[in-house]
Design brief:
The complex is a heterotrimer of chains A (323), B (220) and C (489). Chain A is mostly helical. Chain A is 68% helix and 0% strand. The mean pLDDT of chain A is 85. Chain C is mainly α and 489 residues long. The model of chain C has no long low-confidence stretch (mean pLDDT 88). The chains are: A mainly alpha (323), B mainly alpha (220), C mainly alpha (489).
Chain lengths: 323, 220, 489
């Protein structure tokens, strides 16, 4: 690879990470604004999450008595893994320097690492809410992680590679695959688990603090000040990153190639921003019309999506005919 | 019809067929599972019709239309009428196996079906035969539904699904069995469902409900 | 000659049509008896004129060979006895108010349809047609089982229909897979399911697919024959049905379902070797014997006791089929015929006991021999046959089955089967003596026996004696049938 293209690849990756860091609060704000408008409220504006983060960063750091380094480091772990995922995923361009690590299993492992870190932090506080939130979160994660693996694996079968960049480029080259039974089932399964993983309705209400309905909020209840800002930011970044993954897996057009030019990088940036924004808007609109599921019904939903993902894998394997 | 279209439609029909079975395991409202059964009948009928169009076989197309009328219209209508009008009759009581476990068992049964049908695909690796695992999976899922449900009507739906799965297998691997056997099989299915429907009515009159747990007089 | 081949199916269908139009009356009931007699007579005539050949009719859809003739004779004998008894039985039920005119009409139509379906099954050359006929028997007997409209009868009907329909559906899947294998072995699509075509192509059938088909067919037809694991409907259905129907179901239907298995076995053994179905039949047969014997020990209801005895006998028949030698199959067929007549005797007698006591509990019935010579003696004879006592035929058949098992190097199977049969023997003897011997309880009701039931009982006893003392002409038929099935040695 020549120096110029290598530089272009590095630029694309850096741009990806910066875009995710900067854009995540805007995505969260945008979703809240769409919901507010649809519900007939004025809303706080797209920039409100940024203002909240700014406020929290200036507060005093408080650590609850009896917590250990787990509680202290968890926000950093979550943020760090998410940034790493943002660097690995083929969001703007396919050729990233970390391409060899852009494996499906690696990405899922990093996601799970972040989830586990936060879960342990919830347990570390020793409060009832923390423990309850952690146990609920890990129940959901137990069903969500295998499903993500299976759903993306189903998409990887036609391309014969578990490398995410390869999957995206394979889909871009053969758009007809998107309407095969395997892809359709994988899309549905992936949509359900992304909603579960990022804690949106109908699995978890991101704005509730009622004991009956909290999952994610219960784990982070004891965080305040800068650590809370980091945790909230990391959650927003996870949402952005997962929406970006979904967008590029199923709508891969606009992604810059393996050795991109500057113009291609710019086009890729605009394309991914638009796609993620649209997906976020659709998700927010959907949330207005759905009620939260009762907690004991969530494993049913997730088991169903696991089954759909399994069917997607079998459909991709066994219905594959030589074209 | 081109080879690619034939493959695509067949795969889609088999996929929809299996998906309907999965949704029948998931849902608990009696009315919705009968509607899902009707959709499954539609997906089933698509298979012989597609094969008939691809192989220019008019008899197959006619058989497909008859299957459509019988399994997507007549029999679900019979079952809907037997669902009853009281609200407490409309829902399945808590099944013997909860929904989450049922769905996971369904996943295991699907994998089992793929394993069991390997000799069939090995004998005849055509696009139609490669969709047989889906039909076989529906058969296994249907037996599971019959075993784990408590309402008489859910068992009847499970039986119909079993029969749909077997018919799908027959259409996929051999483009149907000889006409006389297919006719006889369809008539028998119709009679069996009629009998089940009548029995459900008699059960409601005698036992005051159709919960099968009430049938416990004969033991030992 | 072709007319003779389809007479066993047409005659009962005509009787059914007549009953549908005219309702239950002496004329239609007698016509049904005549139709059953036609089946028997046809079987006998064919038996004399057929020899060792195979004959086909109606575009090769129907066949007669020694095996189907044997089954026709079984159906005809038990059918005649049962329909003859039905005349008096239903009339008695009508007078005592246990059933109404609608119920009697339904009975009058469904019984000959049932007979016609069974005849079609044993005369079919096409395995698919055989399947359709056996499925038709389930549908026909469903409302016969529920004839009495009690809660228990309804429960029995539901279980019967659901379990047998699942079993028969699995058998259909097996049939489809066999069709698939047959097509790929070179048969043309029109007659790929014909038994003669299947036998001819058997060596070319794909082994893995055939094994899958054989397993499904064993499970499916085993369900109809009352074999494990789909056996749970048997005791309920046979005990709740009216007595003549119980006799028909226990005596013949189970055997007809097993006949289907025998036909399939002859094809499968040629395709994948005898080991596969032999192992399957041994496992299924021994488990059935085990469950039947265990449940016989704890029985408190005499009709269920008789039903479990049928299950025990079917288990024994399955084990005999596993041996597969000529002697085993011939003995099996004799066993089936003798068992059919014996079950008719005991079920008809128990029907009268139920009518007298309005209950089927063993503890309620005592001193039958003292109270009614007719029912007592015939029930005793029937029990003696079932217990395998000489001079009746089941002694000879069980002895031959034991010899065949020993000769086929299945000594351990023989040991296990004998042990379980002895347990069943003990249970039957204990309950039988409790019911028959000794003085009756004070206040026991009188046992009335309608004339036609009495006639049927006497005829049954005579036939059993004849069969036991002189197997003679039947023996050749059985042996030819065994050869037809490809029995070795």
């Amino acid at each position: 690879m020549s120096a110029a293209t290598e530089l272009a690849g590095l630029t694309a990756t850096a741009l990806q990470v910066l875009a995710v860091v900067a854009g995540a609060p805007f995505i969260v704000g945008g979703m809240r604004q769409v919901r507010a408008r649809l519900e007939g409220r004025a809303g706080g504006g797209i920039g409100q999450p940024w203002r909240d983060l700014h406020k929290q960063l200036r507060k005093q750091q408080i650590t609850p008595a009896g917590t250990t380094v787990v509680f202290g480091f968890a926000p950093a772990v979550v943020a760090g893994t998410t940034l790493l995922i943002a660097a690995i995923l083929p969001l703007i361009a396919l050729g990233s320097p970390l391409d060899s690590a852009a494996d499906l299993f690696g990405v899922v492992g990093l996601l799970f690492l972040g989830t586990v870190a936060l879960t342990l932090a919830g347990l570390d506080t020793g409060t009832a809410f923390g423990g309850m939130g952690s146990s609920r979160e890990i129940t959901i994660a137990a069903l969500v992680e295998p499903t993500i693996l299976l759903a993306v694996f189903a998409l990887s079968v036609p391309g014969h590679s578990a490398n995410l960049a390869a999957i995206v480029s394979a889909t871009a080259d053969h758009p007809g695959q998107l309407v095969s039974p395997g892809s359709l089932l994988a899309f549905v399964a992936l949509a359900i688990v992304i909603i579960a993983e990022t804690g949106r309705l109908p699995v978890d209400n991101p704005s509730t603090h009622l004991e009956l309905t909290m999952i994610h909020e219960a784990m982070i209840l004891e965080y305040a000040g800068p650590k809370l800002a980091l945790v909230e930011w990391a959650s927003g970044m996870r949402l952005t990153v997962l929406l970006g993954l979904m967008a590029n897996l199923f709508l891969p057009w606009g992604v810059a190639g393996a050795q991109p030019s500057a113009l291609a990088v710019l086009i890729g940036f605009v394309a991914i921003s638009v796609k993620v924004a649209v997906l976020a808007g659709v998700l927010a609109t959907g949330e207005v019309f759905i009620a939260k599921l009762r907690y004991f019904r969530i494993p049913e939903l997730l088991a169903g999506s696991f089954l759909l993902a399994l069917l997607a894998v079998t459909a991709s394997y066994f219905f594959a005919t030589p074209t | 019809m081109t080879q690619a279209t034939y493959n695509g439609v067949l795969n889609l029909a088999a996929g929809a067929f299996l998906l309907a079975a999965v949704l029948i395991v998931w849902r608990r409202e009696l009315r919705s599972i009968v509607v899902l059964l009707a959709w499954q009948g539609l997906a089933l009928a698509a298979i012989p019709v597609t094969e008939g169009i691809y192989h220019d076989d008019a008899a197959l197309i006619i058989v497909g239309v008859v299957v459509l009328l019988l399994r997507a219209v007549v029999l679900p209508l019979l079952l809907v009428r037997a669902v009853g009008t009281e609200p407490h009759e409309r829902r399945e009581s808590t099944p013997l196996v909860n929904t989450t476990t049922s769905l996971l068992i369904t996943a295991a049964l699907t994998v089992l079906a793929y394993a069991v049908t390997r000799p069939i695909i090995a004998l005849d690796p055509s696009p139609a035969t490669r969709a047989v695992p889906a039909a076989f999976a529906v058969i296994l899922i249907a037996v599971f539904v019959m075993v784990s449900r408590r309402r008489a009507l859910s068992q009847a739906v499970g039986f119909m699904m079993l029969d749909n799965g077997i018919a799908a297998t027959a259409f996929l691997i051999t483009a149907g069995v000889p006409l006389i056997v297919e006719l006889g099989a369809s008539l028998d299915v119709m009679f069996a469902v009629l009998v089940l429907g009548l029995l459900t009515g008699a059960m409601r009159r005698t036992f005051g409900g159709t919960d099968l747990d009430q049938l416990r007089e004969l033991r030992g | 000659m072709s007319f003779l081949l389809v007479l066993p199916i047409l005659a009962p269908l005509t009787a059914a049509a007549l009953a549908a139009v005219l309702g239950w009356r002496p004329l239609t009931a007698s016509v049904t008896v005549v139709a059953a007699l036609c089946v028997l007579v046809t079987g006998v005539i064919l038996g004399f004129t057929n020899g060792s050949g195979v004959r086909f009719a109606i575009a090769n859809l129907f066949r007669t060979d020694a095996l189907s003739i044997t089954m026709l004779i079984v159906i005809g004998t038990v059918g005649t006895l049962a329909t003859w008894a039905s005349v008096g039985y239903i009339d008695a039920e009508l007078t005592h108010g246990h059933t109404d005119a609608k119920g009697a009409n339904l009975y009058g139509v469904l019984v000959p349809v049932f007979l016609a379906a069974m005849a079609s099954a044993v005369l079919a050359n096409n395995i698919g047609v055989m399947w359709v006929a056996i499925e038709a028997t389930t549908v026909a007997t469903a409302f016969l089982v529920g004839h009495r409209r009690t809660r228990a009868a309804l429960e029995a009907t539901w279980k019967y229909v659901v379990i047998c329909s699942v079993g028969i559906a699995l058998a259909f899947l097996g049939t489809v897979l066999l069709y698939f294998a047959s097509l790929h072995a070179g048969a043309t699509s029109g007659d790929a399911l014909n038994i003669d075509v299947l036998l001819a192509h058997a060596s070319r059938l794909d082994p893995a697919v055939t094994r899958l088909a054989a397993g499904l067919l064993l499970l499916g037809y085993g369900a109809k024959a009352g074999l494990v694991p789909f056996h749970t409907w048997l005791a309920d259905a046979h005990s709740q049905a009216p007595a003549p129907v119980s006799a028909l179901m226990s005596g013949v239907l189970l055997s007809v379902a097993f006949y289907a298995l025998l036909r399939v076995k002859s094809v499968v053994d040629l395709a994948v070797g005898t080991g596969f179905l032999r192992t399957g039949l041994i496992i299924v047969g021994l488990l059935t014997l085990l469950i039947a014997a265990s449940l016989l020990v704890v029985q408190t209801d005499f009709k269920r006791m008789l039903a479990y005895s049928s299950m025990e006998n079917m288990g024994l028949v399955a084990v005999a089929a596993a041996a597969g030698t000529k002697l085993a199959i011939a003995a099996l067929l004799l066993h089936v015929l003798a068992h059919g007549i014996a079950k008719t005797l005991v079920f008809l007698g128990s029907g009268q006991l139920q009518a007298a006591h309005d209950s089927t509990r063993i503890s309620d019935v005592t001193g039958v021999l003292a109270r009614s010579r007719m029912v007592g003696v015939t029930f005793l004879v029937g029990l003696a046959i079932l217990l395998g006592l000489p001079p009746f035929a089941m002694f000879a058949s069980e002895l031959s089955i034991s010899r065949a098992l020993a000769g086929a190097h299945l000594g351990w199977v023989l040991g296990a089967a004998l042990l379980l049969v002895v347990i069943a023997f003990a249970a039957l003897v204990r309950n039988g003596t409790r019911m028959l011997l000794g003085p009756p309880n004070p206040g026991s009701p009188a046992i009335a026996v309608p004339r036609s039931v009495a006639a049927a009982l006497v005829a049954g006893v005579v036939l059993s004696l004849l069969l036991g003392l002189t197997v003679g002409p039947m023996l050749e038929l059985f042996q030819t049938a065994a050869t037809v099935l490809g029995g070795t040695r």
